[in-house]
Give the backbone structure.
Amino acid sequence: MESKSSTTGNRDNPNRNLHGSKTMMASHFLRALFRIQQTSTSSSSAGRSRRIRRAAYASMAYSAGTRRAWSRALLRKLRSRARLRFPRRLSRAATPQRRDMDQAQVLRKLVPGGPSMDDCKLLEETADYIRFLTTQVRLMQTVMDSVSS
Amino acid sequence: MSSRGSSSRITDEEINELVSKLQSLLPESRRRNIGRASASKLLKETCSYIKSLHRDVDDLSDRLSALMATMDANSPQADIIRSLLRS
């Protein structure tokens, strides 16, 4: 039986956990960028962009490893070579203000592995996913800045 | 919500804890926008935030791709990346 304290149990200092992951993320992503640069001389910019995007999600997932449901779900998607797609528009028509439950459903579609999570796990996983996402975005921005200077 | 029975029913306290955790993940500008956050508003803002992060990844991928087109394997930028990887 899963205990409620698992939310904070091994994550007393989430920043400490993230630090090692940041290094892994950067290293993985840069290696991937280098590979992409070497092997895509004649391919289109759009194709290269797709590969870079994929590398971004891959480095997030690999650095988080298998200890998180979202990263396991992402790794599965990446290995099956399925297209990585996240829904942009989630409602067909303009919907009136909805209750919590419906927003939780929306959130489930945005976090990898979301559909199989209960509300409590969803919030834990969302927190972790956001941390890794923001780190990845910052990493990409840093690469942009240092390479274009 | 959960199929595990009454033992996994989430308490109000736990909701508040998770809500404040979610709140702390939003950047200041978004936190200010929602003011006194209800769980519902917070969830909505979280969804919006995640979607914008996904867009950032797409956008930065496009820009990095365009940048790569202007680089060749012997450019100084490639050297920077190479040395970063070696260290």
Q: What stands out?
A: Residues 12-86 of chain B form one domain.
